[in-house]
Amino acid sequence: MTQAVRAMQAGGPEVLEFSEIETPQPGPGEVLIDVEAAGVNFIDTYRRSGVYPMEYPHVVGVEGTGRIAEVGEGVESWSLGDRVAWHDAHGSYSTQVVADADMILSVPEFVRTEVAAAMPLQGLTAQYLATSSHEIKPGQTALVHAGAGGVGLLLTQIIKHLGGKVITTVSTEEKAELSRKAGADEAFLYGEGVDITAKVKELTNGEGVEVVYDGVGKDTFDASLASLKPLGSMVLFGGSSGQVPPFDIQRLNSSGGIFLSRPSLQWFVRTPEQLAKRASMLFNGLEHGWLDFRVGATFPLPEAAEAHRALEGRKTTGKVVLTV
Question: How far apart are CA 285 and CA 268, in angstroms?
């Protein structure tokens, strides 16, 4: 038997239940992994709450780290005991999970367990944002919303490593200090009465920025568009404040011929080679010290509901991790 956290029905964190389930079995091309830690992400809360339609009950979670316990038919690239991490294995809030053998990463032994669990989803997201959705060039300036969040902190570090400048928005002065420590050139508080566009223009001598990375969505979208230089890039990669309503595409023209994209990680790691290449940059950063993964809070697996409350209440910075 396997111990797991299941969402018994759509609802708040109280619908999460820690119990025993049948141990999952790997099929062809899959591996069974003994989970050591699991990452906690907003997508988990969306699926728990019913924002994203799911069957109930279901085991929550998509990300984690552990060691391979069993390989399915046809799997030749992995062996028992290999240390791995993953970003898209449904049912990761568990002591054992099945994953696609082509969509897991080999984890070097120097990487701490909590960091290995925290890295895949947010780390790979930050990597593709700065290198593919809009490729940062030396001297370019980026606006990063939620700069003290998991993706925001990593994205800031990667942009700085690539020679760019970073302006971030945050919700508290404590988070502003965290953002600056990650390398942000400027960090300012957003909220009621704050004119984001005016502040960005002030910080860029009236020019605006080359790119906005916006994972907040509805509350910041208009200000993000207005903060861009002509021919700038608007990269909308999330909607923590809600989804952006439909809008007239002609606005992109009137805003300066803006490039708008709405990416997600799945399109940038479609092959094992793409996945490994993107992850190699992250491991390089960890090994050489220019990249730091902030694990803001850890909870034992049975306390997943408390982890969700902390994440949804914006009480955390960096990554939340469940330990097994």
Answer: 19
Structure tokens at 144: 């990063």
Picking from 278, 322, 323, the residue whose alpha carbon sits closest to that of residue 132 is: 278
233 shares a domain with 194? yes
The one-character DSSP state at 14 is: G
Domain's final residue, options 229, 244, 262: 262
DSSP code of residue 184: -
Q: Residues 228, 156: one domain?
A: yes
Per-residue H/E/C for 252-318: HHHCCCCEEECCCHHHHCCCHHHHHHHHHHHHHHHHHCCCCCCEEEEEEHHHHHHHHHHHHCCCCCE
Residues of the chain with pLDDT under 50: none
147 vs 255: CA distance, rounded Å: 24
pLDDT, one tens digit per residue, over 91-104 is: 999 999 999 999 99
Cα–Cα distance for residue pair 170/102, rounded to 1 Å: 37
Instruction: Say what the pTM is.
Output: 0.92
- 3-class state of residue 11 by DSSP: coil
